[in-house]
Amino acid sequence: MKRTSANLKTLAREALTGNFALPVSAYLLITIVTSVLSMVVTGFLDVSNTISLVTSQILVYLFSLLSSLLMVGYDKMILNLNRRQPYTLGNIFYAFSHNPDRFIVVNFILLLVGILVSLPFDIPSYTSSSWNAMILSMVGILVRSLVSIILAAFFGLANYLLLDYPEMGAMQAMKESLKLMKGNKGRYVHLYLSFLPLTIVCIFTCYIGILWLLPYMQTTLAFFYMDITGELDTPVVEAGNVQDNSFTNPML
User: What's this model's pTM, rounded to 2 decimal places?
Assistant: First the structure.
């Protein structure tokens, strides 16, 4: 059964009712860790020194990869929440202790594509006047966001698959995501963009509202994955703890 965006959001709100504290705290911790690291690097950024500029930018990208891995663990927490399984703050470090190379490969590939398409805007922004630099930076952010949505419409389920199938490789997960997303890309994009109005509202709260919006959004997207794989229609006991080496899915 293909549930509508409204149906999936209803499931997310029901799952989060009375359970918002830990998802909000976990996202806040991830934000603090990655923001502090990025601020330390950019604080020493010397645009007059090419080597320093390149080194600092590489470190920023590495921190972005670190953030992606922490968000994989966050998705693990949300999946457990959705499945009414135990979940803890420690779940955010899940990717670092469960064959991390698989998660690193998937998220590095997605990050690399985003970097390559935004470089034409990022590089000139460091040497342009402040006004032009701001415009170029904003355009770069917009381009990365659009590319991120497009990539997610193809490979957005890869991390979930790696979480559910510990023996699955990175490239296999991306291939399986492509198969699962066939005929569902429009649904995913529509679901993702349906959060845009709330995101705009969060801007007027100095982004504080993001602490509540992101758990809501990630919970909904996790339900989207569970819907596509058929789990919501045929719940499996202890779902998410699959230990066999094969990938079987009723949708494939």
Answer: 0.85
